[in-house]
Amino acid sequence: MNSVKRINPELLKKIKLVVFDVDGTLLSDEGIIGEKSFTLIKELMKSDIKISLASGRLHSALVEIANSIGTSTPLISLDGALIKNGKGDIIVHKSALRKSIVNKSIELAEKYFVNIALCHSEAIYYTENNSLIPMILDKFGALYKEVDSYDSCKENTLEIVYAGDNRRTMEYLRDRLSFPFAFGTSVSFFRSHSHDNIYYLEIKKSGSTKAKGLIRLLKYLKLNPSDVMVIGDWYNDIPMFETKAFKVAMANAVPELKRMADCVLTKTNNEDGTSEILEALLNAKRKK
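Predicted structure:
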């Protein structure tokens, strides 16, 4: 892996699209884009570089960020389950779960006393029995809506999220919602980033990853994987780092991501780390 100073500028000259992970990457822990990165993004867009976001956040939680930097390129939300532009008039891809999977997930949650929420593009729905959901989910910027029953929001569910503190129960539910007990699902099990002793189980339709989302976005934009730079920090960025994109890891990235990266930055998200690679990219683009 290289530092920014050791990157061949010729590699950077080929870049036509930059895709940022959001939390822990483009945003500081306070949810702010670094001033220098913000300015550089604006300059890169003037140089015909497209800017997109790829996040586990809901689409609605990405729109304000996209609008602030002025990008109209479709955004990858819910780790690839939806690809949609900020205005909402272009949907590149939408991957809703089958109603039978939603029903089964709700039944299991009720049987094993685990919190469950249904994620749509605009909001996360929960019932009174799952009232802890807004407090224990790591879905930054999301709009939470309490409903009397899940019956009204089973259609168009892009992701189901379980949250609980019993690891064994969560692992059991993971197995029950994976092949061969369930078909057409992609299940992720992981520990919370910000809540001690809370585990999450995320269920999406098969093929919903940031990598698949990236490939679909590239196809829509008529670009090659080598035309894109991806920047990330967390485990859900690993699929993007398995593509042929130019891969940049933050200084605060998990070790697995750093090992896969073409470049590891020296600064964290709280130090406006993305500005390092954005400045190098802009300099490369300006050189004849």
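Summary: The CA atoms of residues 120 and 182 lie 21 Å apart.
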